[in-house]
Amino acid sequence: MEGFKLIKQGAESKLFQGSYLGVPTLVKDRFKKKYRHPTLDDTLMKERIKAEVRAILKCKTVGIRTPTLYLVDLNRRSIFMEYFPYSVTAKEFIFNANESLIEVLSHCIGKLLGKMHANNIIHGDLTTSNILISNKQKIDIFYESFQNLELILIDFGLSHTDSTIEDKAVDLYVLERAILSTHTTTYNIFTGILNAYKIENKNYKEVFNKLEEVQARGRKRTMVG
Amino acid sequence: MVIAIGFEGSANKLGIGIVKDGEVLSNCRRTYITPPGEGFLPKETAIHHRQNVLKVLREAIDKSGIKVSDIDVVCYTKGPGMGAPLATVAIVARTVAQIWNKPLLGVNHCIGHIEMGRLITGAKNPIVLYVSGGNTQVIAYSKKDTAYSLSNDPSPGYNIEQLAKKGEKYVSLPYCVKGMDVSFSGILSYMEEKIESLLREGYTEADLCYSLQETVFAMLVETTERALAHCESTEVLIVGGVGCNERLQAMMHQMCLERDAKLFATDERFCIDNGVMIAHAGAEMFNSGTKMKWEDCFITQRYRTDDVETTWRED
Ligand SMILES: Nc1ncnc2c1ncn2[C@@H]1O[C@H](COP(=O)(O)OP(=O)(O)O)[C@@H](O)[C@H]1O
Ligand SMILES: [Mg+2]
Predict the structure, then answer these.
(1) By residue range, what is the domain housing residue B214?
(2) Which superkingdom, per the lineage (chain B) (predicted)?
(3) Residues 175-214 of chain B whose Cβ lies under 8 A from any Cβ of chain A
(4) Residue A12 in contact with residue A78, Cβ under 8 Å?
(5) What's B21's domain CATH number?
(6) Helices B205-231 and A38-61 meet at what angle, rounded to 10?
(7) Which of B51, B90, B179, B219 gives the lowest tally of CB atoms within 10 Å of its CB?
(8) CA B131 distance to own-chain centroid
(9) Per-residue pLDDT tens for A21-32?
Protein backbone atom coordinates (compact mmCIF):
# COMPACT_ATOMS: atom_id res chain seq x y z
CA MET A 1 0.00 0.00 0.00
CA GLU A 2 1.85 2.97 -1.29
CA GLY A 3 1.76 6.15 0.73
CA PHE A 4 0.05 4.52 3.68
CA LYS A 5 1.75 4.39 7.02
CA LEU A 6 1.13 2.18 10.00
CA ILE A 7 -0.33 4.26 12.80
CA LYS A 8 -1.51 1.69 15.30
CA GLN A 9 -1.99 -1.92 16.12
CA GLY A 10 -5.43 -2.51 17.61
CA ALA A 11 -6.89 -5.54 19.28
CA GLU A 12 -6.93 -7.58 16.09
CA SER A 13 -5.78 -5.44 13.21
CA LYS A 14 -3.18 -3.02 11.94
CA LEU A 15 -4.32 0.47 11.09
CA PHE A 16 -2.76 2.36 8.20
CA GLN A 17 -3.35 5.98 7.41
CA GLY A 18 -3.04 7.64 4.03
CA SER A 19 -5.00 9.05 1.17
CA TYR A 20 -7.42 7.17 -1.08
CA LEU A 21 -9.07 8.95 -4.02
CA GLY A 22 -7.85 12.19 -2.52
CA VAL A 23 -9.43 11.83 0.93
CA PRO A 24 -7.83 11.03 4.28
CA THR A 25 -8.32 7.32 4.69
CA LEU A 26 -7.79 4.69 7.31
CA VAL A 27 -7.12 1.14 6.23
CA LYS A 28 -8.02 -1.51 8.76
CA ASP A 29 -6.01 -4.58 7.88
CA ARG A 30 -6.98 -7.82 9.58
CA PHE A 31 -3.59 -9.35 8.93
CA LYS A 32 -3.03 -13.10 9.05
CA LYS A 33 -2.71 -14.39 12.58
CA LYS A 34 -0.11 -17.09 12.32
CA TYR A 35 -0.87 -18.38 15.77
CA ARG A 36 -4.20 -19.84 14.74
CA HIS A 37 -5.17 -22.47 12.23
CA PRO A 38 -5.37 -20.95 8.71
CA THR A 39 -8.92 -22.21 8.17
CA LEU A 40 -10.06 -20.65 11.43
CA ASP A 41 -8.15 -17.47 10.69
CA ASP A 42 -9.71 -17.12 7.27
CA THR A 43 -13.22 -17.75 8.55
CA LEU A 44 -12.87 -15.25 11.37
CA MET A 45 -11.34 -12.58 9.16
CA LYS A 46 -14.18 -12.77 6.65
CA GLU A 47 -16.90 -13.00 9.28
CA ARG A 48 -15.57 -9.95 11.05
CA ILE A 49 -15.11 -7.79 8.02
CA LYS A 50 -18.67 -8.58 6.97
CA ALA A 51 -20.03 -7.96 10.46
CA GLU A 52 -18.14 -4.68 10.68
CA VAL A 53 -19.41 -3.42 7.35
CA ARG A 54 -22.98 -4.45 8.05
CA ALA A 55 -23.11 -2.76 11.46
CA ILE A 56 -21.38 0.42 10.30
CA LEU A 57 -24.00 0.81 7.58
CA LYS A 58 -26.89 -0.04 9.84
CA CYS A 59 -25.70 2.51 12.38
CA LYS A 60 -25.67 5.15 9.70
CA THR A 61 -29.28 4.45 8.76
CA VAL A 62 -30.38 5.03 12.36
CA GLY A 63 -28.30 8.17 12.83
CA ILE A 64 -25.29 6.88 14.75
CA ARG A 65 -22.04 8.35 13.54
CA THR A 66 -19.62 5.72 12.18
CA PRO A 67 -16.75 6.01 9.70
CA THR A 68 -17.88 6.22 6.09
CA LEU A 69 -16.82 3.17 4.11
CA TYR A 70 -14.77 3.65 0.94
CA LEU A 71 -13.69 0.15 -0.04
CA VAL A 72 -14.02 -3.36 1.30
CA ASP A 73 -11.63 -5.99 0.03
CA LEU A 74 -11.82 -9.48 1.49
CA ASN A 75 -8.81 -10.66 -0.50
CA ARG A 76 -6.68 -7.90 0.92
CA ARG A 77 -8.32 -8.50 4.28
CA SER A 78 -8.99 -4.78 4.49
CA ILE A 79 -11.59 -2.11 4.98
CA PHE A 80 -10.87 1.40 3.68
CA MET A 81 -12.76 3.98 5.65
CA GLU A 82 -13.03 7.59 6.65
CA TYR A 83 -10.13 8.71 8.84
CA PHE A 84 -10.71 11.10 11.71
CA PRO A 85 -7.51 13.11 12.02
CA TYR A 86 -8.79 15.31 14.84
CA SER A 87 -9.85 12.62 17.23
CA VAL A 88 -8.93 10.82 20.43
CA THR A 89 -10.30 7.60 21.85
CA ALA A 90 -12.70 7.82 24.76
CA LYS A 91 -10.02 6.09 26.80
CA GLU A 92 -7.49 8.85 26.17
CA PHE A 93 -10.18 11.43 26.76
CA ILE A 94 -11.04 9.99 30.16
CA PHE A 95 -7.37 9.94 31.15
CA ASN A 96 -7.03 13.64 30.37
CA ALA A 97 -10.36 15.34 30.89
CA ASN A 98 -11.78 16.83 34.06
CA GLU A 99 -14.65 15.29 35.97
CA SER A 100 -17.42 17.41 34.47
CA LEU A 101 -16.35 16.65 30.90
CA ILE A 102 -16.20 12.95 31.78
CA GLU A 103 -19.73 13.26 33.06
CA VAL A 104 -20.89 14.79 29.77
CA LEU A 105 -19.04 12.10 27.86
CA SER A 106 -20.68 9.33 29.88
CA HIS A 107 -24.04 10.87 29.15
CA CYS A 108 -23.32 10.97 25.41
CA ILE A 109 -22.05 7.39 25.38
CA GLY A 110 -25.16 6.24 27.23
CA LYS A 111 -27.47 7.90 24.73
CA LEU A 112 -25.51 6.49 21.83
CA LEU A 113 -25.65 2.95 23.17
CA GLY A 114 -29.32 3.26 24.08
CA LYS A 115 -30.06 4.23 20.51
CA MET A 116 -27.89 1.45 19.13
CA HIS A 117 -29.64 -1.17 21.22
CA ALA A 118 -33.07 0.29 20.51
CA ASN A 119 -32.22 -0.52 16.89
CA ASN A 120 -31.11 -4.04 17.77
CA ILE A 121 -27.46 -3.50 17.01
CA ILE A 122 -25.07 -5.33 19.32
CA HIS A 123 -21.53 -3.99 19.23
CA GLY A 124 -19.85 -7.04 20.75
CA ASP A 125 -16.67 -5.31 21.90
CA LEU A 126 -17.61 -2.18 23.75
CA THR A 127 -14.56 -0.60 25.30
CA THR A 128 -13.42 2.97 25.67
CA SER A 129 -10.83 2.23 22.93
CA ASN A 130 -13.63 1.65 20.46
CA ILE A 131 -15.31 5.03 20.80
CA LEU A 132 -13.72 8.01 19.10
CA ILE A 133 -14.24 11.62 20.05
CA SER A 134 -13.74 13.89 17.10
CA ASN A 135 -13.55 17.65 16.94
CA LYS A 136 -15.92 18.85 14.23
CA GLN A 137 -13.98 22.09 13.87
CA LYS A 138 -10.96 20.16 12.64
CA ILE A 139 -8.70 21.22 15.45
CA ASP A 140 -6.89 19.18 18.08
CA ILE A 141 -8.70 20.63 21.08
CA PHE A 142 -10.68 18.27 23.26
CA TYR A 143 -10.50 19.15 26.88
CA GLU A 144 -12.11 22.59 27.01
CA SER A 145 -15.74 21.94 26.28
CA PHE A 146 -17.85 19.26 24.72
CA GLN A 147 -19.48 21.72 22.38
CA ASN A 148 -17.81 20.82 19.09
CA LEU A 149 -17.11 17.23 19.91
CA GLU A 150 -18.95 14.28 18.45
CA LEU A 151 -18.83 10.58 19.21
CA ILE A 152 -17.95 8.04 16.54
CA LEU A 153 -18.46 4.39 17.17
CA ILE A 154 -15.86 2.07 15.62
CA ASP A 155 -14.59 -1.52 15.62
CA PHE A 156 -17.69 -3.58 14.86
CA GLY A 157 -15.88 -6.85 14.10
CA LEU A 158 -17.72 -8.73 16.83
CA SER A 159 -21.09 -7.12 16.20
CA HIS A 160 -24.37 -8.63 15.15
CA THR A 161 -27.71 -7.20 14.23
CA ASP A 162 -30.22 -9.81 15.34
CA SER A 163 -30.42 -9.45 19.05
CA THR A 164 -32.03 -10.49 22.30
CA ILE A 165 -32.30 -8.74 25.64
CA GLU A 166 -29.52 -11.01 26.87
CA ASP A 167 -27.21 -9.83 24.06
CA LYS A 168 -27.81 -6.22 25.02
CA ALA A 169 -27.15 -6.93 28.68
CA VAL A 170 -23.93 -8.76 27.84
CA ASP A 171 -22.89 -5.87 25.59
CA LEU A 172 -23.20 -3.51 28.55
CA TYR A 173 -21.49 -5.97 30.87
CA VAL A 174 -18.49 -6.20 28.56
CA LEU A 175 -18.27 -2.41 28.66
CA GLU A 176 -18.50 -2.35 32.43
CA ARG A 177 -15.61 -4.82 32.72
CA ALA A 178 -13.53 -2.86 30.24
CA ILE A 179 -14.11 0.36 32.14
CA LEU A 180 -13.25 -1.25 35.47
CA SER A 181 -10.00 -2.61 34.07
CA THR A 182 -8.76 0.78 32.79
CA HIS A 183 -10.48 3.68 34.44
CA THR A 184 -10.35 4.69 38.06
CA THR A 185 -12.19 7.99 38.09
CA THR A 186 -14.14 8.86 41.19
CA TYR A 187 -17.10 9.70 38.97
CA ASN A 188 -18.86 6.43 38.16
CA ILE A 189 -18.71 6.39 34.38
CA PHE A 190 -20.77 3.25 33.95
CA THR A 191 -23.61 4.52 36.12
CA GLY A 192 -23.59 7.73 34.11
CA ILE A 193 -23.83 5.71 30.92
CA LEU A 194 -26.75 3.65 32.19
CA ASN A 195 -28.66 6.74 33.27
CA ALA A 196 -28.47 8.24 29.81
CA TYR A 197 -29.13 4.88 28.11
CA LYS A 198 -32.66 5.07 29.50
CA ILE A 199 -33.40 8.15 27.45
CA GLU A 200 -32.92 6.39 24.14
CA ASN A 201 -33.94 2.82 24.82
CA LYS A 202 -37.47 2.51 26.15
CA ASN A 203 -36.92 -1.18 26.93
CA TYR A 204 -34.19 -0.27 29.35
CA LYS A 205 -35.89 -1.93 32.32
CA GLU A 206 -35.74 -5.37 30.74
CA VAL A 207 -32.12 -4.80 29.72
CA PHE A 208 -31.12 -3.59 33.19
CA ASN A 209 -32.83 -6.54 34.88
CA LYS A 210 -30.97 -8.88 32.58
CA LEU A 211 -27.76 -6.96 33.23
CA GLU A 212 -28.15 -7.64 36.95
CA GLU A 213 -28.47 -11.34 36.19
CA VAL A 214 -25.40 -11.28 33.99
CA GLN A 215 -23.42 -9.41 36.65
CA ALA A 216 -24.52 -11.88 39.31
CA ARG A 217 -23.52 -14.77 37.09
CA GLY A 218 -20.12 -13.17 36.63
CA ARG A 219 -19.71 -12.80 40.36
CA LYS A 220 -20.82 -16.31 41.08
CA ARG A 221 -18.62 -18.20 38.66
CA THR A 222 -16.77 -20.48 40.95
CA MET A 223 -13.13 -21.07 40.74
CA VAL A 224 -11.71 -24.47 41.35
CA GLY A 225 -7.93 -24.24 41.55
CA MET B 1 14.07 -9.30 55.36
CA VAL B 2 11.01 -11.50 55.41
CA ILE B 3 10.94 -15.27 55.71
CA ALA B 4 7.58 -16.83 54.90
CA ILE B 5 6.31 -20.36 54.90
CA GLY B 6 3.40 -21.27 52.62
CA PHE B 7 0.92 -24.14 52.78
CA GLU B 8 -0.99 -25.12 49.63
CA GLY B 9 -3.57 -27.86 49.36
CA SER B 10 -6.51 -26.57 47.36
CA ALA B 11 -6.55 -29.52 44.98
CA ASN B 12 -4.66 -32.81 44.67
CA LYS B 13 -1.26 -31.32 45.36
CA LEU B 14 0.02 -30.74 48.83
CA GLY B 15 2.87 -28.26 48.86
CA ILE B 16 4.86 -26.48 51.52
CA GLY B 17 7.55 -23.98 50.66
CA ILE B 18 9.72 -21.42 52.37
CA VAL B 19 10.95 -18.16 50.82
CA LYS B 20 13.26 -15.44 51.99
CA ASP B 21 12.67 -12.17 50.13
CA GLY B 22 11.82 -13.93 46.89
CA GLU B 23 14.56 -16.52 47.23
CA VAL B 24 13.25 -20.08 47.34
CA LEU B 25 14.69 -21.94 50.32
CA SER B 26 12.61 -25.06 49.95
CA ASN B 27 9.74 -26.28 47.80
CA CYS B 28 8.33 -29.65 48.85
CA ARG B 29 5.37 -31.45 47.42
CA ARG B 30 3.29 -34.62 47.37
CA THR B 31 0.66 -35.35 44.75
CA TYR B 32 -2.39 -37.44 45.41
CA ILE B 33 -2.53 -39.73 42.41
CA THR B 34 -5.79 -41.39 41.52
CA PRO B 35 -6.30 -44.48 39.38
CA PRO B 36 -6.28 -43.64 35.63
CA GLY B 37 -9.51 -42.06 34.44
CA GLU B 38 -10.69 -41.13 37.91
CA GLY B 39 -10.77 -37.59 39.16
CA PHE B 40 -9.79 -36.76 42.72
CA LEU B 41 -12.57 -36.44 45.23
CA PRO B 42 -12.53 -34.04 48.19
CA LYS B 43 -12.67 -36.63 50.93
CA GLU B 44 -9.88 -38.87 49.65
CA THR B 45 -7.76 -35.87 48.74
CA ALA B 46 -8.17 -34.46 52.25
CA ILE B 47 -7.11 -37.79 53.74
CA HIS B 48 -4.02 -37.80 51.52
CA HIS B 49 -3.09 -34.30 52.64
CA ARG B 50 -3.66 -35.14 56.30
CA GLN B 51 -1.47 -38.22 56.08
CA ASN B 52 1.39 -36.36 54.44
CA VAL B 53 1.32 -32.83 55.72
CA LEU B 54 3.60 -33.31 58.74
CA LYS B 55 6.18 -35.20 56.72
CA VAL B 56 6.22 -32.50 54.06
CA LEU B 57 6.45 -29.81 56.72
CA ARG B 58 9.46 -31.49 58.31
CA GLU B 59 11.07 -31.82 54.91
CA ALA B 60 10.43 -28.17 53.99
CA ILE B 61 11.98 -26.90 57.22
CA ASP B 62 14.99 -29.23 57.04
CA LYS B 63 15.72 -28.39 53.40
CA SER B 64 15.46 -24.65 53.98
CA GLY B 65 18.17 -24.70 56.61
CA ILE B 66 16.37 -22.16 58.76
CA LYS B 67 15.09 -22.39 62.28
CA VAL B 68 11.39 -22.16 62.93
CA SER B 69 12.02 -19.06 65.01
CA ASP B 70 13.38 -17.29 61.88
CA ILE B 71 9.98 -17.43 60.19
CA ASP B 72 8.13 -14.11 60.06
CA VAL B 73 4.78 -15.17 58.71
CA VAL B 74 2.78 -18.33 58.11
CA CYS B 75 0.72 -18.33 54.90
CA TYR B 76 -1.89 -20.77 53.67
CA THR B 77 -4.26 -21.05 50.74
CA LYS B 78 -7.56 -19.54 51.71
CA GLY B 79 -9.23 -20.52 48.45
CA PRO B 80 -10.53 -21.11 45.89
CA GLY B 81 -10.47 -24.86 45.81
CA MET B 82 -12.03 -27.96 47.29
CA GLY B 83 -13.33 -27.46 50.80
CA ALA B 84 -12.04 -30.50 52.65
CA PRO B 85 -8.45 -30.43 51.37
CA LEU B 86 -8.26 -26.66 51.89
CA ALA B 87 -9.49 -27.03 55.46
CA THR B 88 -7.10 -29.87 56.25
CA VAL B 89 -4.07 -27.85 55.29
CA ALA B 90 -5.38 -24.60 56.78
CA ILE B 91 -5.81 -26.27 60.17
CA VAL B 92 -2.17 -27.26 60.18
CA ALA B 93 -1.08 -23.74 59.21
CA ARG B 94 -3.28 -22.29 61.93
CA THR B 95 -1.91 -24.68 64.50
CA VAL B 96 1.77 -24.09 63.74
CA ALA B 97 1.22 -20.33 63.63
CA GLN B 98 -0.15 -20.54 67.14
CA ILE B 99 2.55 -22.87 68.42
CA TRP B 100 5.32 -20.76 66.86
CA ASN B 101 3.54 -17.56 67.77
CA LYS B 102 3.67 -16.10 64.24
CA PRO B 103 1.11 -14.06 62.30
CA LEU B 104 -1.10 -15.99 59.90
CA LEU B 105 -2.22 -14.88 56.43
CA GLY B 106 -4.73 -16.47 54.05
CA VAL B 107 -3.74 -16.16 50.38
CA ASN B 108 -5.80 -16.36 47.20
CA HIS B 109 -4.56 -19.31 45.18
CA CYS B 110 -4.73 -17.51 41.81
CA ILE B 111 -2.89 -14.47 43.15
CA GLY B 112 -0.27 -16.92 44.40
CA HIS B 113 0.26 -18.21 40.86
CA ILE B 114 0.45 -14.70 39.48
CA GLU B 115 2.86 -13.26 42.04
CA MET B 116 5.09 -16.32 41.68
CA GLY B 117 4.99 -15.91 37.92
CA ARG B 118 5.96 -12.26 38.25
CA LEU B 119 8.78 -13.13 40.61
CA ILE B 120 10.45 -15.77 38.47
CA THR B 121 9.92 -14.07 35.13
CA GLY B 122 10.49 -10.49 36.20
CA ALA B 123 7.35 -9.39 34.33
CA LYS B 124 6.29 -5.97 35.55
CA ASN B 125 2.76 -5.26 34.54
CA PRO B 126 1.58 -8.20 32.51
CA ILE B 127 -1.77 -9.34 31.32
CA VAL B 128 -2.07 -12.66 33.04
CA LEU B 129 -3.72 -15.66 31.52
CA TYR B 130 -4.55 -18.07 34.27
CA VAL B 131 -5.47 -21.48 32.94
CA SER B 132 -5.95 -24.50 35.10
CA GLY B 133 -8.12 -27.56 34.79
CA GLY B 134 -11.07 -25.94 36.46
CA ASN B 135 -10.77 -22.34 35.68
CA THR B 136 -9.64 -19.81 33.14
CA GLN B 137 -9.14 -16.10 33.56
CA VAL B 138 -7.54 -13.18 31.88
CA ILE B 139 -6.41 -10.78 34.53
CA ALA B 140 -5.25 -7.20 34.40
CA TYR B 141 -4.11 -5.53 37.55
CA SER B 142 -5.63 -2.11 37.66
CA LYS B 143 -4.16 1.02 39.07
CA LYS B 144 -6.84 1.05 41.71
CA ASP B 145 -5.06 -1.69 43.60
CA THR B 146 -7.55 -4.33 42.76
CA ALA B 147 -6.95 -7.29 40.54
CA TYR B 148 -9.74 -7.32 38.02
CA SER B 149 -10.61 -10.50 36.37
CA LEU B 150 -11.66 -9.68 32.86
CA SER B 151 -13.05 -13.06 32.17
CA ASN B 152 -13.61 -16.18 34.08
CA ASP B 153 -15.20 -19.22 32.64
CA PRO B 154 -14.81 -22.91 33.31
CA SER B 155 -12.38 -24.37 30.81
CA PRO B 156 -13.01 -27.77 29.26
CA GLY B 157 -10.47 -29.17 31.65
CA TYR B 158 -9.60 -32.09 29.44
CA ASN B 159 -6.09 -33.23 29.19
CA ILE B 160 -6.11 -33.49 25.45
CA GLU B 161 -2.67 -32.21 24.59
CA GLN B 162 -1.11 -35.56 23.81
CA LEU B 163 -3.93 -36.87 21.67
CA ALA B 164 -4.19 -33.52 19.92
CA LYS B 165 -0.61 -33.87 18.71
CA LYS B 166 -1.71 -36.81 16.59
CA GLY B 167 -4.61 -34.96 15.02
CA GLU B 168 -4.37 -33.80 11.41
CA LYS B 169 -7.74 -32.74 10.10
CA TYR B 170 -9.23 -29.53 11.38
CA VAL B 171 -12.98 -29.35 11.83
CA SER B 172 -14.60 -25.96 12.41
CA LEU B 173 -16.12 -25.61 15.85
CA PRO B 174 -18.15 -22.80 17.43
CA TYR B 175 -15.91 -19.89 18.30
CA CYS B 176 -17.11 -17.42 20.89
CA VAL B 177 -15.29 -14.31 22.01
CA LYS B 178 -17.21 -11.44 23.54
CA GLY B 179 -14.95 -8.49 24.05
CA MET B 180 -12.41 -9.70 26.55
CA ASP B 181 -14.57 -12.62 27.58
CA VAL B 182 -14.67 -16.14 26.23
CA SER B 183 -17.33 -18.75 26.53
CA PHE B 184 -16.73 -22.44 26.12
CA SER B 185 -20.27 -23.60 26.69
CA GLY B 186 -21.16 -23.43 22.97
CA ILE B 187 -18.21 -25.48 21.86
CA LEU B 188 -18.76 -28.12 24.53
CA SER B 189 -22.43 -28.65 23.80
CA TYR B 190 -21.64 -28.75 20.08
CA MET B 191 -19.05 -31.45 20.73
CA GLU B 192 -21.43 -33.49 22.80
CA GLU B 193 -24.09 -33.27 20.17
CA LYS B 194 -21.94 -33.85 17.10
CA ILE B 195 -19.22 -36.18 18.25
CA GLU B 196 -20.88 -39.35 16.96
CA SER B 197 -21.58 -37.98 13.52
CA LEU B 198 -18.13 -36.41 13.21
CA LEU B 199 -16.50 -39.74 14.00
CA ARG B 200 -18.71 -41.41 11.40
CA GLU B 201 -17.68 -38.80 8.86
CA GLY B 202 -14.11 -39.98 9.20
CA TYR B 203 -12.62 -37.62 11.76
CA THR B 204 -10.55 -39.47 14.33
CA GLU B 205 -10.64 -38.78 18.03
CA ALA B 206 -7.22 -37.23 17.65
CA ASP B 207 -8.58 -34.89 14.97
CA LEU B 208 -11.32 -33.78 17.30
CA CYS B 209 -8.94 -33.18 20.18
CA TYR B 210 -6.69 -31.27 17.85
CA SER B 211 -9.53 -29.12 16.57
CA LEU B 212 -10.90 -28.55 20.04
CA GLN B 213 -7.50 -27.52 21.32
CA GLU B 214 -6.80 -25.25 18.34
CA THR B 215 -10.15 -23.52 18.73
CA VAL B 216 -10.14 -23.13 22.49
CA PHE B 217 -6.56 -21.88 22.58
CA ALA B 218 -7.22 -19.48 19.70
CA MET B 219 -10.03 -18.01 21.79
CA LEU B 220 -7.75 -17.66 24.80
CA VAL B 221 -4.96 -16.07 22.78
CA GLU B 222 -7.33 -13.67 21.08
CA THR B 223 -8.84 -12.64 24.41
CA THR B 224 -5.39 -12.05 25.82
CA GLU B 225 -4.48 -9.99 22.77
CA ARG B 226 -7.59 -7.86 23.24
CA ALA B 227 -6.69 -7.26 26.87
CA LEU B 228 -3.13 -6.32 25.83
CA ALA B 229 -4.45 -3.79 23.33
CA HIS B 230 -7.02 -2.27 25.63
CA CYS B 231 -4.76 -2.10 28.68
CA GLU B 232 -1.76 -1.02 26.58
CA SER B 233 0.40 -3.68 28.11
CA THR B 234 3.27 -5.42 26.34
CA GLU B 235 3.72 -8.37 28.64
CA VAL B 236 1.86 -11.65 28.87
CA LEU B 237 2.26 -14.08 31.69
CA ILE B 238 0.77 -17.55 31.52
CA VAL B 239 0.28 -19.39 34.79
CA GLY B 240 -1.70 -22.36 36.08
CA GLY B 241 -1.58 -26.06 35.24
CA VAL B 242 -2.66 -25.77 31.59
CA GLY B 243 -0.10 -22.98 31.23
CA CYS B 244 2.44 -25.75 30.71
CA ASN B 245 0.74 -26.82 27.49
CA GLU B 246 3.33 -26.37 24.76
CA ARG B 247 0.86 -25.62 22.02
CA LEU B 248 -0.74 -22.85 24.07
CA GLN B 249 2.67 -21.38 24.80
CA ALA B 250 3.68 -21.56 21.13
CA MET B 251 0.49 -19.83 20.00
CA MET B 252 0.82 -17.14 22.62
CA HIS B 253 4.44 -16.62 21.67
CA GLN B 254 3.48 -16.16 18.02
CA MET B 255 0.78 -13.65 18.92
CA CYS B 256 3.28 -11.72 21.03
CA LEU B 257 5.76 -11.68 18.14
CA GLU B 258 3.10 -10.17 15.91
CA ARG B 259 2.64 -7.22 18.24
CA ASP B 260 6.04 -6.74 19.82
CA ALA B 261 4.97 -8.04 23.16
CA LYS B 262 6.89 -10.30 25.45
CA LEU B 263 5.70 -13.67 26.65
CA PHE B 264 6.56 -14.97 30.07
CA ALA B 265 5.61 -18.51 30.79
CA THR B 266 6.54 -20.08 34.04
CA ASP B 267 8.03 -23.52 33.93
CA GLU B 268 6.58 -26.79 35.13
CA ARG B 269 8.01 -26.47 38.63
CA PHE B 270 5.98 -23.38 39.26
CA CYS B 271 2.98 -23.73 36.95
CA ILE B 272 1.93 -26.62 39.12
CA ASP B 273 0.42 -25.79 42.49
CA ASN B 274 3.07 -25.36 45.15
CA GLY B 275 3.66 -23.93 48.59
CA VAL B 276 6.30 -21.40 47.54
CA MET B 277 3.82 -19.34 45.59
CA ILE B 278 1.61 -19.04 48.66
CA ALA B 279 4.62 -18.13 50.79
CA HIS B 280 5.77 -15.52 48.28
CA ALA B 281 2.37 -13.89 47.77
CA GLY B 282 1.85 -13.95 51.53
CA ALA B 283 5.24 -12.32 52.07
CA GLU B 284 4.25 -9.51 49.69
CA MET B 285 1.08 -8.98 51.68
CA PHE B 286 2.98 -9.10 54.96
CA ASN B 287 5.50 -6.56 53.68
CA SER B 288 2.77 -4.15 52.75
CA GLY B 289 1.35 -4.38 56.25
CA THR B 290 -1.57 -6.72 55.67
CA LYS B 291 -2.78 -8.36 58.85
CA MET B 292 -5.55 -10.89 59.26
CA LYS B 293 -7.51 -11.46 62.40
CA TRP B 294 -7.78 -15.04 63.56
CA GLU B 295 -11.48 -15.07 62.86
CA ASP B 296 -10.77 -14.03 59.24
CA CYS B 297 -8.42 -16.93 58.71
CA PHE B 298 -11.03 -19.29 57.40
CA ILE B 299 -11.15 -20.98 54.03
CA THR B 300 -13.46 -20.33 51.15
CA GLN B 301 -14.14 -22.60 48.21
CA ARG B 302 -15.24 -19.69 46.07
CA TYR B 303 -12.86 -16.81 45.99
CA ARG B 304 -12.76 -14.34 43.19
CA THR B 305 -9.47 -12.87 42.13
CA ASP B 306 -10.98 -9.40 42.05
CA ASP B 307 -11.98 -9.65 45.70
CA VAL B 308 -8.34 -9.28 46.61
CA GLU B 309 -6.93 -5.87 47.37
CA THR B 310 -3.47 -5.76 45.92
CA THR B 311 -1.95 -3.55 48.55
CA TRP B 312 1.57 -4.59 47.65
CA ARG B 313 1.48 -3.23 44.10
CA GLU B 314 2.79 0.25 43.61
CA ASP B 315 1.94 0.76 39.95
N1 LIG C 1 -11.65 5.87 11.44
C2 LIG C 1 -10.68 6.11 12.34
N3 LIG C 1 -10.13 7.32 12.47
C4 LIG C 1 -9.15 7.56 13.37
N5 LIG C 1 -8.64 6.62 14.19
C6 LIG C 1 -9.15 5.39 14.11
C7 LIG C 1 -10.20 5.06 13.20
N8 LIG C 1 -10.50 3.75 13.34
C9 LIG C 1 -9.67 3.28 14.28
N10 LIG C 1 -8.86 4.24 14.77
C11 LIG C 1 -7.83 4.08 15.80
O12 LIG C 1 -7.27 2.77 15.71
C13 LIG C 1 -7.54 2.00 16.86
C14 LIG C 1 -7.86 0.56 16.50
O15 LIG C 1 -8.97 0.50 15.59
P16 LIG C 1 -10.08 -0.63 15.75
O17 LIG C 1 -11.06 -0.49 14.65
O18 LIG C 1 -10.61 -0.59 17.13
O19 LIG C 1 -9.22 -1.95 15.48
P20 LIG C 1 -9.08 -3.28 16.37
O21 LIG C 1 -10.26 -4.13 16.03
O22 LIG C 1 -7.80 -3.90 15.90
O23 LIG C 1 -9.05 -2.89 17.80
C24 LIG C 1 -8.69 2.72 17.55
O25 LIG C 1 -8.69 2.48 18.95
C26 LIG C 1 -8.43 4.15 17.20
O27 LIG C 1 -7.46 4.70 18.07
MG1 LIG D 1 -10.50 -1.78 18.89
Answers:
(1) 125-270
(2) Eukaryota
(3) 175, 177-181, 214
(4) no
(5) 3.30.420.40
(6) 50
(7) B51
(8) 7
(9) 999 999 999 999
